């Protein structure tokens, strides 16, 4: 490129100055001036200063056209840059109504402006979509928060209720376990008592059977005494003629009195063994004993008074009748005692059977209570596991609430 102010050009100009006129020299200086200004403006524009212009143009021709074209290019470029900057700055701030003014734009500037305006429209559309998406995102976040909080509230309430229920169930199972343990101990003690009662009823039944046997023997003896007294009454009519027979009868009566006394003593002992059941029989036995002693005394008296037997025959007959009547009463009482003892024996047998049934039922109850106790223990273990699960659910619910709150905060902050 040829520079206008080079030494060669200056030298040529000096040589030309010798052969040009003054007007031509002035025109040449004018060209040199505008070309220098034109170079300065272009250099300033190349450095980004688009405000520099070539003013007061006093030339014409191609140079004028070049100067005005440079000014026009700078005007277009400056306007395009200003409009583009304003439009893009507004778009960056979300104000998409600011467009690049197309009036006066030509060629590539107009095309670039249209591209920028089109890009602004697209940015506006995308911003609206982003805004709508943000609104939808916030609406979804609100709905999600409401839904999750509702679920979390339900889960938390359910976990709290479950915890309270399981705690109550745990207390109930612990009480049930303790009560079943106490019940097992009580049933075991009852079973032992029932077994003792069963053994006692067996022993009592044996005692009553023994008493019944003794009473039957006593009844037989009393019946024999009745028979003997009847024979004594028969022989009493011939007492005067058979004094020796009276002595024998008196001796026999004495023997019977001794035997009756012995039986009465035995009956008293057996009645004492029978306890309350033999109390009545003991009274009768005591009376029999007294009667036996009286009979012995009467017999002794008869023996002593044999020499005077005729004088007291009537008294002897009366005494024998009394003895006979008493023995009959003893026989009747013995029969009554025997019947009562038989009935008591049956009752005690029934009691014994019932006691055995009670012992069997008690054993079954013990097994059932032990099964209940085992089930209560298993339930207690299960409730402890369920309580741990309820605590885990409550903790997970709290963790879920925290995570959801963080998630929603992140969404809303964007």
UniProtKB/TrEMBL annotation:
<dbReference type="InterPro" id="IPR004089">
    <property type="entry name" value="MCPsignal_dom"/>
</dbReference>
<dbReference type="GO" id="GO:0005886">
    <property type="term" value="C:plasma membrane"/>
</dbReference>
<dbReference type="GO" id="GO:0007165">
    <property type="term" value="P:signal transduction"/>
</dbReference>
<comment type="similarity">
    <text>Belongs to the methyl-accepting chemotaxis (MCP) protein family.</text>
</comment>
<dbReference type="GO" id="GO:0006935">
    <property type="term" value="P:chemotaxis"/>
</dbReference>
<dbReference type="GO" id="GO:0004888">
    <property type="term" value="F:transmembrane signaling receptor activity"/>
</dbReference>
<keyword id="KW-0472">Membrane</keyword>
<feature type="domain" description="Methyl-accepting transducer">
    <location>
        <begin position="151"/>
        <end position="380"/>
    </location>
</feature>
<dbReference type="Pfam" id="PF00015">
    <property type="entry name" value="MCPsignal"/>
</dbReference>
<protein>
    <submittedName>
        <fullName>Methyl-accepting chemotaxis protein 3</fullName>
    </submittedName>
</protein>
<keyword id="KW-1003">Cell membrane</keyword>
<keyword id="KW-0807">Transducer</keyword>
<feature type="domain" description="T-SNARE coiled-coil homology">
    <location>
        <begin position="310"/>
        <end position="372"/>
    </location>
</feature>
<keyword id="KW-0997">Cell inner membrane</keyword>
<dbReference type="InterPro" id="IPR000727">
    <property type="entry name" value="T_SNARE_dom"/>
</dbReference>
<dbReference type="InterPro" id="IPR004090">
    <property type="entry name" value="Chemotax_Me-accpt_rcpt"/>
</dbReference>
């Amino acid at each position: 490129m040829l520079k206008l102010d080079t030494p060669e050009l200056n030298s040529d100009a000096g040589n030309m100055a010798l052969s040009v006129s003054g007007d031509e020299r002035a025109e040449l200086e004018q060209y040199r001036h505008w070309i220098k200004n034109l170079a300065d403006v272009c250099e300033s524009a190349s450095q980004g200063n688009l405000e520099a212009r070539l003013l007061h143009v006093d030339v014409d021709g191609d140079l004028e056209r070049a100067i005005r074209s440079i000014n026009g290019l700078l005007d277009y470029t400056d306007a395009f840059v200003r409009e583009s900057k304003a439009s893009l700055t507004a778009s960056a701030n979300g104000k998409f109504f600011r467009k690049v003014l197309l009036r006066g734009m030509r060629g590539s500037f107009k095309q670039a402006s249209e591209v920028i305006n089109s890009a602004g429209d697209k940015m506006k559309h995308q911003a609206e979509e982003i805004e709508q998406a943000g609104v939808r995102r916030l609406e979804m976040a609100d709905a999600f928060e409401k839904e999750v909080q509702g679920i979390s509230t339900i889960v938390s309430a359910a976990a709290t209720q479950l915890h309270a229920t399981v705690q109550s169930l745990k207390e109930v199972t612990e009480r049930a376990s303790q009560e079943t343990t106490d019940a097992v101990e009580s049933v075991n003690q009852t079973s032992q008592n029932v077994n003792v009662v069963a053994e006692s009823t067996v022993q009592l039944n044996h005692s009553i059977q023994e008493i019944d046997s003794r009473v039957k023997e006593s009844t037989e003896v009393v019946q024999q005494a009745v028979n003997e007294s009847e024979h004594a009454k028969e022989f009493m009519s011939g007492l005067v003629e058979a004094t020796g027979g009276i002595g024998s009868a008196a001796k026999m009566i004495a023997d019977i009195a001794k035997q009756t006394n012995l039986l009465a003593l035995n009956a008293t002992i057996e009645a004492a063994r029978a306890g309350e059941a033999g109390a009545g029989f003991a009274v009768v036995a005591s009376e029999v004993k007294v009667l036996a002693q009286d009979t012995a005394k009467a017999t002794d008296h008869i023996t002593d008074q044999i020499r005077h037997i005729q004088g007291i025959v009537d008294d002897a007959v009366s005494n024998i009748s009394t003895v006979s009547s008493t023995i009959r009463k003893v026989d009747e009482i013995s029969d009554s005692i025997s019947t009562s003892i038989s009935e008591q024996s049956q009752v005690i047998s029934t009691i014994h059977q019932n006691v055995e049934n009670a012992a069997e039922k008690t054993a079954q109850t013990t097994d059932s209570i032990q099964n209940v106790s085992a089930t209560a223990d298993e339930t207690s273990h299960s409730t402890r596991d369920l309580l741990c699960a309820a605590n885990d659910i409550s903790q997970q619910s709290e963790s879920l609430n925290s995570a959801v709150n963080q998630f929603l905060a992140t969404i809303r902050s964007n």
